[in-house]
């Protein structure tokens, strides 16, 4: 029930470069690493997500005949031999992947996924891998903040309607659940991933009726003990009063607009006065981590939150600075590690590993970014070998297990990173060897060495 | 080649409400309108998009057996009769749709699409319609600004890698093209929609080689006269010099980083000095409408732009305040028009039409939002009847035609809206009849009348 990804879901230049490699006989093994340049002003850490989707895409990668035909007809391939298209038609992923476990907190410059394969293959996947991993990571990272702000109160992801299309809605639900949300409103996510799917009722149901109470009675009769009644269509306290007078006993009531601090207090008091201590209060409507935090700090007696658009679009940072860069190629006489050298946005050369170091209390202390050719004792290596020769080494972990591990790993983050206020103080050390490799490449290419990275 | 949309791509409450309507025997005809509450600080107008996708979704809507089975097993439906699931299994869209033509500029509160159908159906589509129409509209509206800023220089949409998954990348490419971009990097969009697909080369191709010039030569030999060479991997001017010395004659060179005002001037001067007046300069890299405007105003000799993330994610406003609201239902003894009445976010009742009025020069002057029961002489009605009894009345217009009409309609916008600076002065008049209907509903529901809308 994962939605399929066409092979043509790629920037054209991945394919013209493939043609150029093929025509020039370049089939060397290459490694590309996917990482985030900058975690963004509004995040103190990121949560790796979208990895399972990426691995399934790689494992299932193939061109359909009409995709090949489209490329044959495209003018960019006018001078390309017909054999190239036969090559594409037979192409499957045969490489290896190292990746962080989904749900792992990570930081800028740390590779979360490395593809090692013949260069044509590894390059081809760039566009799709970036969009899949970047998007789910953006959503998971936002959702984790909302979950932290909710201090243990359940958060449901309700943002499908404002997601970037229905596929984005599905994977947003998955990423949000992975990062600690308790469920989603997205029904497809229930079928596809077994995520708990929850829902209440809309204003439109109530507006269908001339009489609000009649709509509550009709709805409750069908949905039964799981009913959540929506109070704010006309007048919140009046709606509550009519529910009490009619003797309805919903499982919860929902507040979707207005001053939800005051209203939640009034509703809680009235429910308690009526002896309905077990009726919960659900709050929704343009929430994010800051508003959730504000409500709870002010003592709002809210039991759970539905958070939509802000999670499903990662609204305050909808596009991570995710990149996928060549770091090594088995070709040429000079050094085989590679990096982008420009002063403005250089990358670290060679295949790398991230080592995580914890303090005596088990909280994260710092990470070390190292070349795989180095020994870094004492740290936990975060990238693991997950795909070999084009196939998953083990079945992917269950989403429930990933979610539980993500929760445990979030609990290891230092308190200053878990706060909502910006804090970019987490230390990621780059080894001297990586710095030396970068300098070596710069010298080889005659590019000026930049003091700040020297 | 449109990607399919599962029926379960819906918030669960659309389905629990369907069950409640069905169990209570409510099959009345209803009308829902899709509109944007607020066009946002960073937009002066919006461009309607995603309509064709929405209509195809409606026409093809059906539940798969495993979707029905999922719902049967879900605890929210425990008290729902088995007949409801048989009803869902046979459900197809049988209603009517009125919609604006894709590419039409529109404003807050103006319905761009109305669904009229039995209430269960019309309600069910809410989540998917909002995400499809809202997303493409967000992208088209952003792209139109970039196209305006580019003053006739071609703009390609290059944002697939940072789109919210690969489906979002595909429809972002379509929306951007509709709104005036000249092409996309997304190959699937070429196959699916016939959009011109363009591309250059990546830094990684160059980095594969030990020698930059060798990579240029190899690439040019394969791609031929359409080659665009990327200059900024190591040193922009040095790369250009090597190209000239080697006698290469690419169709264009690309600048992806650094001070692109200065670099474009230096590159243009050097190309002209070498007699290569026909070699164009393409600029990419973290561009948006403001940076494009700034570069061109400063006299940068740039021929075309590649704009990625900012268009494909509508980054500065990634989620429009799109809603889908019940406006009419054939039920009950009182008035049959409906509206949300809360002071904070009320809606306008009844099925509506948008009438557009132009000045003597043919530029947009103002719009009138009216009930369909009113006669508004002299204005152009924007909503047209496009689906009848569940089927498209005519085949959808060709994307090329929509794009040409969008361009013509953008040219009719007043200059003050076409500028990048915020301007929300366009007048949308609400008729006295709509205001009276809202007051009537408020009185019927005993909700306080709000002066500002009286």
UniProtKB/TrEMBL annotation, chains A, B:
Entry's EC annotation: 6.3.4.21
Keyword Phosphoprotein: yes
Entry keyword set: Glycosyltransferase, Ligase, Phosphoprotein, Pyridine nucleotide biosynthesis, Transferase
GO-annotated molecular function: glycosyltransferase activity; nicotinate phosphoribosyltransferase activity
GO terms (BP aspect): NAD+ biosynthetic process via the salvage pathway
GO cellular component, one term: cytosol
Pfam families: NAPRTase_C, NAPRTase_N
Domain Nicotinate phosphoribosyltransferase N-terminal: 8-133
Enzyme type, top EC level: ligase
Family matches, as InterPro entries: Aldolase_TIM, NAPRTase_C, NAPRTase_N, Nic_PRibTrfase-Fam, Nic_PRibTrfase_pncB, Nicotinate_pribotase-like_C
Function: Catalyzes the first step in the biosynthesis of NAD from nicotinic acid, the ATP-dependent synthesis of beta-nicotinate D-ribonucleotide from nicotinate and 5-phospho-D-ribose 1-phosphate.
PANTHER family: NICOTINATE PHOSPHORIBOSYLTRANSFERASE
Family (UniProt): Belongs to the NAPRTase family.
NCBIfam families recorded: NAPRTase_put, PRK09243.1-3, PRK12484.1
Name by which UniProt lists this protein: Nicotinate phosphoribosyltransferase
């Amino acid at each position: 029930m994962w939605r399929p990804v066409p092979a043509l879901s790629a920037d054209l230049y991945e394919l013209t470069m493939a043609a150029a490699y093929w025509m020039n006989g370049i089939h060397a093994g290459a490694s590309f690493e996917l990482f985030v340049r900058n975690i963004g002003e509004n995040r103190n850490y990121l949560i790796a997500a979208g990895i399972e989707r990426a691995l399934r895409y790689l494992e299932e990668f193939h061109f359909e005949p009409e995709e090949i035909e489209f490329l044959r007809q495209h003018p960019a391939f006018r001078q390309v031999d017909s054999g190239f298209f036969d090559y594409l038609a037979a192409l499957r992923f045969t490489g290896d992947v190292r990746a962080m476990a989904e749900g792992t907190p990570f930081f800028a410059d740390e590779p979360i996924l490395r593809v090692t394969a013949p260069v044509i293959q590894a390059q081809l996947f760039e566009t799709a891998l970036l969009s899949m991993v970047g998007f789910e990571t953006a959503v998971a990272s936002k959702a984790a903040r909302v979950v932290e702000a909710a201090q243990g109160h359940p958060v449901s992801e309700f943002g499908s309607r404002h997601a970037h299309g229905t596929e984005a809605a599905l994977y947003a639900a998955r990423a949000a659940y992975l990062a600690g949300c308790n469920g989603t409103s997205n029904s497809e996510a229930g079928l596809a991933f077994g995520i708990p799917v929850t829902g209440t009722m809309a204003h439109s149901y109530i507006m269908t009726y001339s009489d609000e109470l009649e709509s509550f009675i009709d709805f409750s009769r069908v949905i039964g003990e799981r009913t959540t009644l929506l109070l704010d269509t006309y007048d919140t306290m009046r709606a509550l009063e009519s529910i009490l007078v009619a003797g309805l006993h919903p499982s919860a009531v929902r507040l979707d607009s207005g001053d939800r601090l005051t209203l939640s207090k009034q509703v809680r008091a009235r429910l308690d006065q009526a002896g309905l201590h077990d009726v919960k209060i659900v709050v929704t409507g343009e929430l994010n981590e800051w508003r959730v935090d504000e409500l709870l700090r002010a003592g709002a007696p809210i039991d759970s939150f539905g958070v939509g658009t802000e999670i499903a679009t990662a609204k305050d940072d909808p596009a991570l600075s995710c990149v996928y860069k060549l770091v090594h190629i088995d070709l040429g006489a000079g050094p085989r590690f590679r990096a982008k050298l420009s002063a403005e946005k250089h990358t670290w050369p060679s295949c790398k590993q991230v080592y995580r170091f914890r303090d005596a209390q088990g909280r994260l202390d710092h990470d070390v970014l190292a070349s795989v050719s180095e020994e870094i004792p004492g740290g936990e290596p975060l990238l693991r070998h997950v795909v070999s020769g084009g196939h998953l080494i083990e079945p992917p972990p269950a989403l429930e297990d990933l979610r539980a591990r993500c929760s445990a790993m979030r609990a290891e983050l230092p308190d200053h990173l878990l706060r909502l206020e910006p804090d970019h103080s987490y230390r990621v050390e780059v080894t001297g060897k990586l710095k030396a490799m970068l300098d070596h490449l710069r010298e080889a290419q005659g590019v000026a060495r930049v003091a700040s990275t020297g």
